[in-house]
Amino acid sequence: MYAELGPLSLEGGGHLPAVRLAYETWGKLNPARDNAILILHALTGDSHVAGPAGPGQPTPGWWAQAVGPDLPLDTNKFFIVAPNVLGGCMGSTGPSSLAPDGREWGSRFPQLSTRDMVRAEARLADLLGIDTFAAVVGPSAGWHRALEWAATYPERARALILVATSACTTAEQAAWAHAQIAAIELDPHFAGGDYYSNLEGPVRGLGLAREIAHTTYRTPLELDERFGRERQGDEDPLAGGQLAVQSYLDYHARKLAARFDAGSYRVLSKAMITHDVGRDRGGVQAALSVFSKPTLVVGVDSDRLFYARDCKKMAAAFPDGRYRQICTPFGHDGFLIEFAQVNAIFADFMKELK
Fold first, then answer.
1. Per the annotation, does 126 bind a ligand?
2. 133 and 34, same structural domain?
3. Does 210 appear as a known binding residue?
């Protein structure tokens, strides 16, 4: 489904004359219109939270283990709304979308901030007739938007569920994002962002960005135990062959390049660098103190992108925050892998929303 949301002036001074958000829903909105849950996806995610792959959906639902009938985010009880982020490439307005002149936005697409994305999502909620969400849920970069919902529209959510993210982008996180942006921009096929008429496009740059990112999503222990110094098949690195871990990263690079747009990756990564919920609000503590409703913060003990210690500190900044932790060797990706733990934590918290 698509929502046409009209023009949007942007925090950085840019302007989009027309904004469209793609979104999916599950369950039914009740007569009181107060049983909706908003789910906000991670950097390269999309609105397809649950369900099989199909036309327009190259991958199965990315959180199907947590969203559905009788699951913690129960579609028998709640109306689940999942938009594709503004700036994305799965139906929402982004660099690959057509500008008013009929050409792709490309290099002309303006800088976005997390707050711009959330204002677009608030308009979607208005269009759907949802004044208040029972909960706003966001993992990873989606959590950035969930935090902005709490700070900008504290009256429009009765609870928050925040998984593996940060209140503001750290220097280390900005450094990782900067390297990924550079990998895309240095691809000769990127052409400054105006590559949409090129059949190849910057797939190598996008793939390299993904390899950098994917390394931060996992842990040294897991990579060593899983791959060690194993060769890829019978290849010999001394003769130009690869180690198994190299082949693993190349696989994930190809997989992302086949379904995602480099321009969107760059725009969303730049938005991550600007993320700071405390900006112009007196700091993080002041920004989060305005949301006094139940808030669940879930950290991942082995996450080396969004450190668990920072998640725990953020939970303490909420008036009604509580912290839970996933224990896993898989690092940041643990929230997509350890569903027994995730579901148990979610189910316990969701009892408060019944």
1. no
2. yes
3. yes
